[in-house]
Amino acid sequence: MPELRFCVPEWRDGYTGAYVPRELPTVPDVRVAEERSNVPPGSVLVASIVVPPGTALRVTSLRFNAEGSDAKGKLYIVDSSGLVDAPFLESEGSEKQLGRIEEPLYVLEGTVEVWLVSYGTGYTYGVFMQGYYSR
Q1: What one-character DSSP code corresponds to residue 92?
Q2: For the chain, percent helix, then strand, then coil, each to nearest 5?
Q3: N or C: which end of the chain has fewer CB within 10 A?
Q4: 42-69 confidence digits (pLDDT tens)
């Protein structure tokens, strides 16, 4: 009788050291989708995420946009180790970054905070971020 074998592609998770299936989960563990209108100058907390101990949040998608004439803004992504990144929008428009689960944009631990800094009044900002936990 012929022998049937199944092969599931795997990759080595650099954070946990474990081999995990290459497939993406169908639903992200974390999704942040916020839109803020008429944001005053200064900083506003957009999201605060507590990453479970022993895991890391792999951010695979980030979109940051601003609307309004001469709209400028900055997004601060901070985790337990400090400032991770600070994308800046110099004018109206959007910045979009896409990663994969094997090569995420960011690997975040502990408490993650996403801050929005507005440099004027009356602007509308949008933030979309999603990711998966290392297991």
Answers
A1: S
A2: 0, 55, 45
A3: N
A4: 888 999 999 998 888 989 888 888 888 7
DSSP 33-86: EEEEEEEPSEEEEEEEEEPPTT--EEEEEEEEEEESTT--EEEEEEETTEEEE-
Q: Count CB atoms within 10 A of the CB of residue 67.
A: 15
Comparing CA positions, the residue from 78, 77, 64, 76 lying closest to residue 125 is: 64
Q: What are 93's strand-pairing partners?
A: 66
- pTM of the model as a whole: 0.77
Domains of the chain: 30-133 (2.60.120.380)
Cβ distance 40 to 121 under 8 Å?
yes
Measured CA angle at 71 (ends 69, 73), to 5 deg: 175
d(CA 106, CA 121): 30
Q: Tokens at residue 61, please?
A: 């998608």
